[in-house]
From TrEMBL:
Gene3D superfamilies: alpha/beta hydrolase
NCBIfam families: pro_imino_pep_2
GO molecular function: aminopeptidase activity
Keyword line: Aminopeptidase, Hydrolase, Protease, Signal
Protein name as annotated: Alpha/beta fold hydrolase
One Gene Ontology term from the biological process aspect of the record: proteolysis
Entry's family note: Belongs to the peptidase S33 family.
InterPro entries reported in the protein's UniProt record: AB_hydrolase_1, AB_hydrolase_fold, AB_hydrolase_sf, Peptidase_S33, Pro_imino_pep
A Pfam family per the record: Abhydrolase_1
The keyword Signal is assigned to this record: yes
Active-site positions on this chain: S152, D294, H321
Organism the protein comes from: Mucilaginibacter phyllosphaerae
AB hydrolase-1 domain mapped to chain residues: 75-326
Record has Acetylation as a keyword: no
Length: 351
């Protein structure tokens, strides 16, 4: 009799456990369905929306595309370069959607799928800040859902946007960017340049002195000696396709005007940009991401989090400038934890 009762109880427990195991799957399916539901009206475009912006030189269209639908966590991505495209952010599709984080791609004016006025007078930081604000308004992003991630040059743009419009932000992510271009240039000269073979460095400097940047030897020297060590620490013939595709579409006019002819230091309009003294003005939750082998000083990027009012630092020990690729698991886990932590009401997030 006791043996029969024991068998009945064991069977009941197993059936109960099976029913409980079914519940998360049902909830996950329901959540996924809501996340993937396109709530737009009219003809569906796969999340693509062209946004008309007003500029001192007239009206232009910029390209945006959203993946997912979450009223609480919307991440707008600002690409680097300046002049690259949103495409190198495509790696995020393997990580963020499953966490319920909505991704919004955006090609800045002159980049990728957006209009290109081919007017260097329009390549200016203040104008781009106003462009981001117009995109925010068009996409109906606000302080209850709007996370802004800027990578490299996009980090400068994101920071500058926050200094003026942080009241519209829920969270700010500055990825792989220092808050001082003079300090960035100094780091390139005093730290990175000293890691070169002296003969290689001498030849690079000789080409730069002549302004012969179109010389194929210039990039031929920089790619193996600098880009593979400090931009993306993956063998060049194995660089991720989205990264190659994005870099292959670089708007050189925009890049050279703002940055200069290469990532090895800075020489364009951004040469004197420095916001280090203004960092304490930022009260919005801020995540600063940096990689050990970055073109930027990793210590400076960690320091940023100590200067803003509500800062969090993410250090990628294996990462370089494209840490979302060469230290991917650390980068994506930290980014996800920060966004979900802020969504839960934390101004600072322990990573």
């Amino acid at each position: 009799m006791k043996k029969l009762i024991f068998c009945i109880l064991t069977l009941s427990n197993l059936l109960f456990a099976c029913k409980q195991a079914d519940k998360p799957a049902t909830n996950t399916t329901t959540g996924l369905s809501a996340y993937l539901t396109d709530t737009t009206t009219g003809v569906k475009t796969g999340g693509i929306q062209m946004v008309q912006i007003s500029t001192p030189k007239g009206k232009f269209n910029v390209w945006t595309k959203k993946i997912g639908n979450n009223p609480k966590m919307k991440l707008l991505l600002l690409n680097g370069g300046p002049g690259a495209t949103h495409e190198y952010f495509e790696c995020m599709e393997s990580f963020l959607p499953k966490e319920g984080i909505e991704i919004i791609y955006y090609d800045q004016l002159g980049c990728g799928n957006s209009d290109n006025p081919k007017d260097t007078s329009m390549w200016s930081l203040p104008r781009y800040v106003e462009e981001v604000e117009q995109v925010r308004q068009a996409l109906k992003l606000d302080k209850d859902n709007f996370y802004l991630l800027g990578h490299s040059w996009g980090g400068i743009l994101a920071a500058e946007y926050a200094f003026k419009y942080q009241d519209h932000l829920k969270g700010l992510i500055i990825s792989n960017m220092m808050m001082s271009c003079p300090a960035y240039g100094k780091y390139a000269v005093e730290v990175l340049a000293r890691q070169f073979d002296p003969k290689v460095l001498a030849r690079i400097r000789a080409i730069e002195a002549k302004g012969d940047f179109a010389n194929p030897e210039y990039m031929g020297l920089l790619m193996p000696n600098f880009y593979v060590k400090h931009i993306c620490r993956i063998p060049l013939d194995q660089w991720p396709e989205p990264l190659n595709r994005s870099f292959g579409k670089m708007n050189q006019s925009l890049y050279v005007t703002m940055q200069g002819p290469s990532e090895f230091g800075i020489a364009g309009k951004l040469l004197k940009w420095d916001r280090t003294q203004d960092l304490p003005k930022l009260s919005v939750p801020v995540l600063s991401i940096g990689g050990e082998y970055d073109t930027m000083d990793p210590k400076h990027m960690q320091w940023i989090a100590t200067r803003v009012q509500n800062g969090t630092s993410l250090y990628c020990p294996k990462g370089s400038h494209m840490s979302m690729y060469d230290d991917q698991e650390v980068y994506m886990a930290g980014l996800t934890k920060f966004i979900k932590g802020v969504d839960a009401g934390n101004k600072k997030v322990k990573l």
